[in-house]
Automatic annotation (TrEMBL):
GO biological process entries: lipid metabolic process
Protein kinase domain residues: 187-523
Coiled-coil regions, chain positions: none
Matches recorded under SMART domains: S_TKc
Name of the protein this chain belongs to: Serine threonine kinase
Record keywords: Kinase, Transferase
Keyword field contains Kinase: yes
Pfam families: Pkinase (PF00069)
């Protein structure tokens, strides 16, 4: 981490007011981006040096008596030494108004409330803080309106932006700044400005004391600031989405994207901040011949690794939706149901940036840039749009469908990337970057009697006759015939010609298909160096000798292992890189591997995976306090509440021991590979959510389901003993105490909210192929009661009014407790699916599903949920019954080990996601609105949660 605040100048010796004023003025720096030409800022590091605690005391002693001196010193620097009014004091010195410092202290105005604004009321100056709250006592201050106005002007020199970059997080900051806000950016020397895309890019340095950085790699030395004018005619329709765009979740997926570090909007401009690159792919081509050789194994491996990384990151863009903040329910539903419709639209060598020392490892690295052109799916941007709707493309690399009427989609990028890969391969193989220009001239020559363009397909081809220019076909063949063309390069060129430069977009490879083919090439390079870099023109006997049959997997075996082929859109849960350790296991137990691959197949089929629905900037928009505007006299049974099933069971929390009975079949076969496979199978079945409970709280979930297991010692919690969490036979990380303490922290932060927390004894052990419950620990009731008392939460057996439980949690008890000791609402008895009832007149609740009935089909499960939702809506609003509708289910039949049958929670969730959203959207739009009780889902996300709780509010 870094956040430098100290300058290099010596401490002040002369502290008379004029010398302090001069020191502050001399500290001013001109910002790199200043449309007025009049701005300046004082770096925080310089300010702390000039107005050190000692100097502050000496300066104030010249203006104030001993009676108030120490009070003021402690108000400028707090008791713990943190600056509280340092910026205010510096501004007052600049405007020769230090005598007003006491007014600021008495009014309790601190630096955190800057910048202030001033309004005139007659001749009085009325001040307002940054949140537009009036500073009441300012109207009684003795300064004139011109003096107050001068203060608000000079304060901006002390209010420059403080930038935060946390590359270890999935989120980035986006700031909305006033038009006169000063940016702590300093020009390079000499200044460097480049143009491209929809704006200009400026090379800048960020003032060190205005930058907080945390990352695993060295802090960037300089930055690229891309300015995009919002009012520009050609401005992308989703520039606002880009400024708050979703950051790719997995580190490996975003490694080859020019990562947006943070962004801000000032006046009519968006500013996007990236790390400054050494150049683009064309600049790398100039140096490649002297750095890389196609007949050196390490260089060949680097070449394919860069290509595979670019494809992986491009594929992650194709799978992302915009973080565009929808303002209507219709827009939210459109975004949620729209599918994977991202595309870049302008892949070309100039948009692949080159870093010569990536993350400090001295290796050349390529990233996809100019994401300002990236089109994401929103109500204004769909996957297949007309060509007229695609802006910013480059003529040379445009795909044939641009000439047709079918529209363009994500595979447009694959064509463009195929063109770039062909040029990249030619420079690498021929070791001469001039070949790119020659290749372009040849394409122009072929087209000279028509439109005279250097495109890769004839203008007007439309992709229906399978045409590419003859020059392109000849170039590919010439490269394959080159004396340094190894088998790997030949396969790479085949991939370009057969999969990427396919004129018919519907037959063209997706990014996932290209990535699998490249991983296949990488795998074979790792297995045999002669495949990676030995020329194909060796004598046949030598080529056969160099690659043993056992080292070349057949296409069928690669598909089975998930290495290539198969489904197109592989998910993070079942990355093909995880299959290496299971290949031998599959030979010993093909049925076990079939089961695992079937799980992968189901995962790959999911087009609406909640994993890709995270909003990038929870700081800008989240729903942490949606209950705040609800009337306090409502019963909690009169509210529509989002809930989650097995709320803590996200994949990273699931622990399936590889040496336990959970892997009974694997151990029976004494095969460690099968042990790993069965662990993965049970992890998948145990996983019910993709967002942590903390995220769930912040996007509006208010009913949580926690399952408890035996008392144990938690080393990661300081060695304390506590009840653990579980999902059946799978343990979950963290203890019940730790999770509930975290929920208490949330309620302290948002005291308007209330939570419904269901706690159930759920521990199971596997005996053979069947689960057996573990005898409950009757001490659980004491542990839960103690936690509820500690936080002063609600333990009543009735459904309370909202005003009774704001800032508190309601216990839904699913474990035994004596009848004469009230401890929450009793859910320990069998589910009341027939009539709404409880053991007594209070705490009535109802659900539709009979617990004695096994898992349901998709249609049956949705009918159950829908019937419950409609019943809750149509019932008497004052019936004091809590209704529970659930779309959660899992079906696993292990009675025949060799022929297991299963539907995972993720599969149910995906299948029921669309009907639930459509139902909720229809209800929101209907004239007759009602309450729907608790709606429980697996793999809940912000869209689902928001559509549920917005039923409580008028449209």
């Amino acid at each position: 981490m870094s956040g430098e605040v100290l300058g290099s100048e010596p401490p002040m010796v002369d502290i008379d007011m004029s010398s302090v004023w001069e020191a502050l003025m001399n500290a001013c720096r001109k910002p790199a981006i200043d449309h007025t030409g009049k701005q300046a800022f004082i770096p925080l590091g310089r300010l702390l040096r000039i107005l050190s605690p000692r100097n502050v005391e000496r300066i104030l002693s010249q203006r104030f008596t001993d009676e108030t001196l120490m009070i003021l010193v402690n108000e400028v620097y707090g008791a713990n030494g943190e600056p509280r009014r340092l910026k205010i004091m510096a501004t007052l010195i600049l405007v020769n108004g230090l005598n007003f410092l006491l007014d600021f202290v008495n009014a309790k105005v601190e630096d955190s409330q800057l910048p202030l604004t001033v309004h005139r009321r007659g001749q009085q100056a009325i001040l307002y803080d940054r949140e537009k709250n009036e500073i009441e006592s300012s109207k009684n201050w003795t300064w004139s309106y011109p003096e107050a106005e001068y203060f608000t002007m000079k304060q901006m020199q002390l209010c420059s932006l403080f930038c935060t970059i946390d590359e270890e997080e999935q989120f980035m900051d986006h700031f909305r700044l006033p038009a006169d806000f000063v940016l702590p950016l300093v020009d390079s020397d000499p200044p460097v400005i480049r143009s491209g895309g929809y704006g200009k890019v400026t090379k800048v340095f960020i003032e060190p004391s205005h930058l907080w950085y945390r990352g695993s790699y060295p802090k960037p030395e300089c930055f690229a600031i891309k300015a995009v004018q919002h009012s520009s005619i050609d401005h992308p329709s989703e520039a606002d989405s880009l400024a708050r765009r979703l950051v790719i979740k997995k580190l490996a997926d975003r490694e080859h994207l020019h990562q947006l570090l943070f962004s801000f909007r000032r006046a009519d401009y968006y500013y996007l901040v990236f790390e400054w690159a050494d150049g683009d792919l064309t600049d790398l081509w100039e140096t490649m011949p002297s750095l890389y050789r196609p007949d050196v194994e390490e260089d060949a491996v680097w070449f394919y690794r860069q290509c595979a990384g670019i494809v992986r990151s491009l594929g992650s863009l194709h799978e992302q939706r915009s973080s565009y903040t929808a303002t209507t329910v219709e827009e939210r539903v459109h975004i949620a149901l729209g599918g994977k419709y991202g595309r870049h639209s302008d892949i070309k060598p100039q948009n692949l940036l080159w870093f010569s020392d990536f993350q400090g490892d001295k290796k050349d690295h390529l990233v996809i840039a100019d994401l300002g052109l990236t089109q994401f799916n929103t109500s204004q941007s769909k996957s297949h749009v007309s060509w007229a709707g695609v802006k910013g493309y480059t003529q040379t690399y445009k795909a044939p469908e641009s000439e047709g009427s079918d529209g363009v989609g994500a595979r447009y990028d694959i064509w463009s990337l195929g063109c770039v890969f062909l040029e990249h391969a030619s420079v690498f193989l021929m070791r001469d970057n001039s070949c790119v220009r020659t290749f372009s001239d040849n394409r122009l020559e072929e087209d000279k009697e028509k439109d005279f363009t250097d495109t890769y397909t004839p203008i007007g081809s439309r992709g229906i006759r399978g045409e590419v220019k003859k020059t392109v076909t000849k170039m590919i063949q010439d490269l394959k015939d080159h004396e340094l063309c190894a088998p790997s390069m030949s396969d790479f060129l085949d991939l370009i010609s057969e999969g990427m430069l396919e004129p018919n977009q519907y037959d063209r490879h997706t990014a996932g298909m290209v990535l699998r083919a490249l991983r296949d090439i990488q795998l074979r390079c790792d297995q045999d160096p002669r495949y990676a870099c030995v020329s194909r023109h060796l004598p046949l006997k030598d080529r056969l000798k160099s690659i043993p049959d056992s080292r070349i997997p057949s296409r069928q075996s690669r598909i089975l292992a998930g290495i290539s082929g198969g489904q197109e859109g592989s998910r993070a849960n079942f990355d093909s890189s995880q299959t290496d350790s299971t290949e031998d296991a599959g030979a010993a137990d093909p049925e076990a591997l079939r089961m695992l691959n079937e799980l992968r197949h189901m995962s790959n089929d999911i087009n609406l995976s909640p994993d890709i629905l995270q909003l990038q900037i929870p700081k800008i928009r989240f729903d942490g306090d949606w209950m705040k505007t609800l009337p306090g006299d409502l019963s909690v049974t009169q509210i529509s509440i989002p809930g989650t099933h097995n709320s803590h069971a996200i994949k990273s929390n699931v622990v399936v021991a590889s040496n336990g009975n959970v892997n009974f079949a694997a151990h029976a076969l004494y095969n460690p590979g099968i042990v790993s496979m069965y662990a993965e199978i049970y992890t998948t079945i145990a996983t019910c959510q993709s967002f942590s409970m903390w995220d769930q709280l912040h996007f509006g979930v208010r009913c949580f389901d926690l399952r408890v297991r035996s008392w144990e010692k938690f080393d990661n919690e300081g060695g304390r003993w506590a009840f653990g969490l579980c999902h059946g036979s799978a343990k979950l990380k963290e203890s019940l105490t730790q999770v509930l303490d975290g929920m208490a922290d949330f309620l302290k932060k948002y005291p308007s909210e209330t939570l419904l927390i269901s706690i159930k004894w759920d521990e199971e052990k596997l005996e053979g192929s069947k689960s057996a419950p573990v005898t409950p620990d009757w001490n659980l009731r004491f542990g839960v009661s103690e936690i509820w008392d500690k936080h002063n939460w609600f333990k009543g057996a009735y459904w309370p009014k909202l005003h009774e439980v704001r800032g508190r949690a309601i216990l839904l008890r699913r474990f035994w407790n004596p009848d004469n000791e009230p401890l929450g609402i009793n859910f320990d008895k069998p589910s009341f699916f027939d009539n709404a009832r409880s053991d007594g007149p209070e705490g009535k609740w109802k659900q539709m599903t009979d617990p004695s009935v096994g898992s349901k089909t998709i249609e049956e499960r949705w009918k159950c949920a829908r019937d419950m939702l409609i019943e809750a809506k149509e019932a008497d609003f004052n019936d004091d019954v809590m209704y529970f509708a659930s779309t959660c289910d899992v079906w696993l039949d292990m009675t025949e080990l060799k022929k297991p049958k299963f539907w995972t929670p993720l599969y149910y969730s995906q299948q029921l996601y669309q009907p639930l959203l459509l139902f909720m959207n229809g209800e929101y739009r209907s004239q007759k609105k009602g309450r729907y009780g608790v709606v429980v889902t697996d793999f809940c996300n912000q869209t689902v949660s928001q559509l549920i709780f917005e039923q409580n509010f008028s449209r």
